[in-house]
Amino acid sequence: MTLEVQQLLKETIGLDPVSIGRPIIEQLIRARMAHCGVRKTTDYCRQLRSSEAEMRELIEAVVVPETSFFRDPCSFEALTQIVIGDWAPRHSNESLRVLSAPCSTGEEPYSIAMALLDAGFPSERIQIDAVDISAKALDLGRLGAYRHNSFRNKDAGFRERYFQRIDDRYQLTESVRSRVRFHYGNLVTEDFLAGNCYDIIFCRNVLIYFDPPTQQRVIKTLIRLLASMGILFVGASETSLLRDKGLTAVDHTHSFAYRRVGSGRKNTVPPIPKPREAPTTTAISRLPVAKSKPEAPPIDLDAARELADAGRLTEAAATCEAYLKIKGASAPAYYLLGLIRDATGDPQGAAELYRKALYLEPDHVEALTHLALLSERSGDVAGAKLLQTRAERAIKRKASDPSVDDKTEVSEQLQLQPT
Question: What pLDDT score was predicted for residue 24?
Answer without folding.
Answer: 81
